[in-house]
Specification:
Blueprint (H helix, E strand, L loop, with lengths): L5 H12 L2 E2 L2 E3 L4 H12 L7 E6 L3 E6 L8 E6 L6 H5 L4 H5 L7 H15 L6 H4 L14 H4 L6 H25 L14 H14 E3 L15 E3 L7 E2 L5 E6 L4 E6 L8 E4 L6 H8 L11 E2 L2 H6 L8 H10 L7 E3 L2 E2 L1 H10 L9 H5 L6 H31 L5 H35 L1
Parallel strand pairs: 8-11
Antiparallel strand pairs: 1-2, 2-3, 3-4, 4-11, 5-10, 6-7, 9-10, 12-13, 13-14
Helix pairs in contact: 5-9, 13-15, 15-16
Bound molecules: S-adenosylmethionine (SAM).
The site of S-adenosylmethionine has 18 residues, from strand 4, helix 9 and strand 8.
GO biological process, one term: methylation
Pfam families: Rubis-subs-bind (PF09273), SET (PF00856)
Keywords: Methyltransferase, S-adenosyl-L-methionine, Transferase
Amino acid sequence: MRSKCGRTGRRRKNKAENGSNASGESRSHEYEYIQLCKWLKERGFQNNYLRPVEFTDTGRGLATTQSLQPGELIISLPEKCLITTDTVLHSYLQKYIKRWSPPVSPLLALCTFLVTERHAGHKSCWKPYLTLLPDSYSCPAYWEDDIVSFLPQPVKQKAMEQKTELHDFYMSSLPFFKSLQPLFGENIDNILTYEALRWAWCTVNTRTVYMKHEQKDCFSSDKDIYALAPYLDLLNHSPGVQVEAAFNLKNRSYEVRTTVSCRKYEQVFICYGPHDNQRLLLEYGFVALNNPHQSVYVTKEVLLRHVSCKDKQMEKKCSLLQENSFLENLTFGLDGPSWRLLTVAKLLCLGSEEFMCWKKVLLGNAISESNEHSGLELVRKICLHLLEDTSLILKEISSFTSKNILVKKHLALVEALRLDELKILQTSADILENMHRASR
Ligand SMILES: C[S@@+](CC[C@H](N)C(=O)[O-])C[C@H]1O[C@@H](n2cnc3c(N)ncnc32)[C@H](O)[C@@H]1O
């Protein structure tokens, strides 16, 4: 009997299931993945067609061995497979959490559980899952300060805040960690270290799915919205797909349904949200290729550096913009400067005799030809400034040398982000040049 798929189909099938695939290398035959699938099956998970593959462009992800249609269920993970604060409260940590005051946050409870379970090694019943988690992450919390300094504003500021926040989180958690000493024969300071907490924090931040839990008295009032979902968390992000994901109360499983089709043997993606690359880098440690949400941000500082300091109404103009929340989210995108940026520029360029028309400008009305022209000119100057700045940083990045593999990896991420921004700024500069010519 002949199979229906023919020679090409057979070759592709073999590649996806056993060996290499056009864009990646299958991992499903490896011991750790076999153990994980066995462990998940024991907990009621039925995996029919998702296989782990190391893809050349996105890293490890899941491929499908059958084509998926819109509306189809990608994965349904029983509650027993999830790690949530309920899991933590059913563990040896329960008594320590319940007696701690002020109450620990749901995030700290989860992070502590991850670290202590990882420390337990083969004694942990979560071992098949924990073994396959990354050893480290590529979000800025892991970066050295000189790599962070190559980031554009405002993500640079946020990356520094992320590092500080993590450090504060560790320092404030130390007394609670100390209270856990009776659980261990070894000094707790060597188990719940800063590095271990950073790893757990990034595990939670980059891999959990949203799952709202009821507020519990033993936890602080911070939102309890996390669930670690083994196997499901191998799905990578694509800005171009849409999924529906939620916990199904009827069958008590976390389900993800695709709203787009996916071809047989190709990588299955989900969407982590409509994020630009700055946010993806900050929160997940990667930059997405061809991201339609990508934009370059213009900060208040850059904006004000390009306006006339002789303008007596400048202070008033700035406070009007501030009051009307017009000083955030000023961007360049692949389709040129945003409407907000152009509007702000026009308001800043209003002549003294036009100043009373500021409301009309914010509503999108044109005041005069000269105002339209000077607003455009201001945006063009800002674009050229950012273009020059980005090119300079890219030169600095290419001359930065390090033998440390992780540093090189982090540097490559900043470079990818900066190159993406360069492309946007170049396109915007061309668009502005054409607008400038047309307005003459
Ligand atoms: C939920 S995990 C997805 C599985 C992950 N690749 C793994 O090997 O475990 C999220 C992480 O995957 C990586 N990732 C997700 N989508 C990606 C993409 N489109 N390109 C590159 N890396 C991606 C990022 O490191 C992100 O923090």
